[in-house]
Amino acid sequence: MAPSPRIACTALAWEENLELSEKKPNAGRSPRRGRSRRPVITQRHTKEKALSVVFLAPALLFLLLTNVYPLLYSLRLSFFSWNMTIPLSKPRFVGFENYAALPADPI
Asked: What is the pTM for the complete model shown?
C-alpha cells in the first residue's frame, strides 16, 4: 500500500527542512551587525498576558501586605525610641542612635 499524498508531502517538506538546516546560514552574504533576524511568524499572546496579570495580582497584593509592608514598617520604627507598653505614648525620633547602641548592648 502506497503512502497517502499528505504523508508523502509532509515527509518531503521535512527532508527539505533537514537539508536547509544543514546549510550554513547567510552563506555568501555579510552578516547584519547589531540586528537579529526576526522570526517569520510572531505571536503576541496579549490575551494570555492580560489573564496572567489578573491571576497574579491577588498573590502579589497578599505578598506585599504580609511581607513587604511589615518589613518596611519595622525598618522605619528602628529609627524611633518608643515604649509601646505605655498607653498613648508617642514615638521619639532618635535616628541612628539605636544602631550605635547595638555593639554595646549585652543582650
From this structure: 0.50
